[in-house]
Amino acid sequence: MELEIKREKLVLRVGTQKYEWHIEPRYWRNPFIYVGILILVPIAVYFLYPQWLPTVIDANLLAAIAIPLGWMTIGTGRMNFGPQFYIGVGGFTAALCSINLGWPPFVTLLMAILAGLIFGLLMSPLSIIAGGLYYTLLTLLFPLVFLEITFIYTDLFKGDTGLFGIAQMVNVGHFTVNQFLICLMSLFMMLLYMFIVDKIMRSKFAASMAAINDDEEVAEAMGVNVKKIKIISFTIPAVMIAVIGWFYAHYYGTFSGVTYLPLAFMVKVLLVSMIGGRVQIYGNVIGGYFIVILELFLSSVLGEYSQVVFPIILLILLLTLPEGLFGLYRKRRYREYLPTLHVRR
Amino acid sequence: MTEILKIDSVSKHFGGLMAINDVSFSIIEGETLGLMGPNGAGKTTLVNMITGKYLADSGNIQFMGHDITRMPAYRRCKLGISRTYQIPRPFPELTALMSVVVSALYGKDRANQSLEDAATEATHYLEFCGLFSKRNVLGKDLTLYELRGLELARALATTPKLIFVDEVMAGLNPDEAYKAVRLLERAKEEFGVTILWIEHVMAALMQAAQRVVVLHYGQKICEGLPQDVANDPYVIECYLGSCHV
Ligand SMILES: Nc1ncnc2c1ncn2[C@@H]1O[C@H](COP(=O)(O)OP(=O)(O)OP(=O)(O)O)[C@@H](O)[C@H]1O
Ligand SMILES: [Mg+2]
Fold this sequence. Notes:
By secondary structure, chain A is mostly helical.
């Protein structure tokens, strides 16, 4: 392993592999502004409207689910309609370990990662066996089956009441400050995911993923190990999403299947992903904020009917905005810098 | 005269249809082998079997001493087998450059190749195929002629030893067809690849191929020098459509 710093890029060599990483400061302005604004939001909310902190946390976490979901969609070339399954896996693992065994959050985090890894690996062959609509339907079924299981084994999962008494993530003794800290953590989590996925979307790995997304058979004929890449880009995002489940469990102190596993939650996540776009994942944050605000607005205006309106919005966006809001921006201000990826799904 | 590929009595059926029935022949390193046959003769199926899209029902395929009969397609590619498609299959949402980059990155296990190195290399193949000015055009926006060039660039970028070319002239006007054939000849000179060339236009194969194999209803009915094959009464009969196997 060897790291070399050139004028405008870092070159990392691991064995016979070589990775290049552009560090030209003239491309740093926009990311800096973007991250700066994102950090200002919770601070401003804390001082001006502290009662809105949960909304900001929600938005960050939704975006943090949608970002790995984007990777999963591209890398497997299929739409996964059941990301909330992994929320359930991570959340229940964390909750059960915390309540029954009394383990602290950072230990339950490891367990949630492990559980996500196991379930991700177990389910990843689906992306090889099943294609198109069948895959989408199967992934849609899993969380619902999981929900049933929480009701059937209700003494373990407390399907009816939810699990209570999960250890708090942070506790400094002041409610608003707690929320502020959690808000910062959710932001950090989201930014970390964005950073990781963004780096992957600009790597060699992304080239193979984009090829798989367009035509698996041709990709394989051109030497891409399609199965390997699909399994990797199914499993790692699954783990990343499971970690968000862990976050939910320790943030609320309660965890119940009914909150996360039904379709309503899935629709929210997919909406964020639709609005945000899947290759250019920066839009997911805007998608997250947009959805939580839309949800507040719709439920205050329409009440119960907002449950119906959300899927309709999702459907319209699926048809009209394949590359998300950021895709629109990019179309207008197209600038070829590195080879760029466009992705169909 | 070393054999680069040796096919030994392979068969493939789709349901009741024998698409390939006990076909054997070999390809010699450096040659251009023509593969002819009427529509539905099984030419594309044979290529699909050698490149790994389908597995042979029976028989044996050897490539440079490796038994590749049951090998997954991507490993055959890394060994040095590449192909173009009869109906071009570009990556519709990737730019021409990125499609070739994929081949350059994954077509062979190469040490010390970053994404940008691959892009530089891909540029070379695009330029060779006359597509440099189209490097930022999406696959779905290219014309048929450009797509044929892109298919070849993509195939060459995997640094193959053997290329299967499934019809270069179909659908092109005479001028473009001539250019496409010239491109293939140049590729052969410059990269020293062995070519198996499927074509319906007999005249083109007569000129370019050193040997010709003729398939009919999944069976090899003739193999030999182009002029001998062209004068074979049985082959002529099959092309006129009155023979039965
Ligand atoms: N995947 C498949 N499933 C079922 N039948 C198939 C399949 N692929 C090919 N066939 C059949 O196998 C036979 C041979 O087809 P193939 O495409 O190999 O012919 P070809 O020689 O390439 O013809 P053409 O000159 O039209 O390209 C045809 O009858 C075709 O219908
Ligand atoms: Mg054919």
